[in-house]
Amino acid sequence: MRRTILVPSLFLAVAFLTSSYAQAQQPLSPPPSTTASAAFSPAPSGHGRGIGVGAMTMLNGTGGGLVTWGSPSGGFHVDGFFGLHRYNPNGHNTTSFGLGGRFWYHVHAAAFADFSLGGGVGINHWTANPGTNDSDSKTDVSLEVGGQIRAFLVPNVAFIADLGLGIVFSDNDDILIGGQKIGDGNFVQGTLGIAYFFE
Question: What backbone torsions phi and psi does residue 164 show, to the nearest 5 degrees?
Fold first, then answer.
């Protein structure tokens, strides 16, 4: 009786061990590939869309308060400027008024920055001693072309850097080709700004 129970138990043990050994000898399937293909796309970043406000200066000096708007698709943005300054150099009351606008097409964008090409127009008007006999005024109209880099510290705050070439037409029929004025010379130059976006 004991021998009858022992034979089936021995048979089951041998069958179990043989099955386990066979499974252990099977080649392991290769692990799933963990290589990720990094697809590069020049698509615009998700930052800088909608309405933003800040401060900026054009290459010729037109600037002040900045209102900017980025398209929902992220393909371009436009900037508008408004500046008003009243000061008293050498006892002469002077009022300066500036207005400008620019259009930028996004050439390339990354996660936290974009690069654009574009240009715009700006108007600067100065009035010295308004309301007096020696009142004098001057108006400059400027055109500029160049590039702009926006670097986003967080999704809705950007530092802005411009570099380009400006042409200024003044009341005295002077035509100036250059950038932001430095000392007595004019050079291709850049400006800095900042913007806060509400989206």
Answer: -175, -165
Per-residue model confidence (pLDDT) at position 38: 40
Reported as a single tens digit per residue, the pLDDT across 54-104 is 998 877 667 789 999 999 988 999 999 888 887 776 666 778 888 999 999
At 164, the pLDDT band (50, 70, 90 cuts) reads: confident
The vertex-192 CA angle with 186 and 45, nearest 5°, equals: 130
109: how many CB neighbours lie within 10 A of its CB? 21
| Chain-centre distance for alpha carbon 143 | 22
Report helix, strand or coil for 44: coil
The span from the CA of 116 to the CA of 166, in Å, is: 17
What stretch of H or E contains 116?
A: strand 113-128
Q: Residues 152-163: pLDDT tens digits?
A: 999 899 999 988
What is the per-residue burial (b if ≥16 Cβ within 10 Å, else e) of 14-38? eeeeeeeeeeeeeeeeeeeeeeeee
Domains of the chain: 50-197 (2.40.160.70)
Encode pLDDT of 85-97 as tens digits.
Answer: 877 766 667 788 8
pTM, two decimal places = 0.65
For residue 8, report the phi and psi dihedrals to the nearest 5 degrees.
Answer: -65, -35
Q: Dihedral of CA 197/38/108/77: which sign?
A: negative
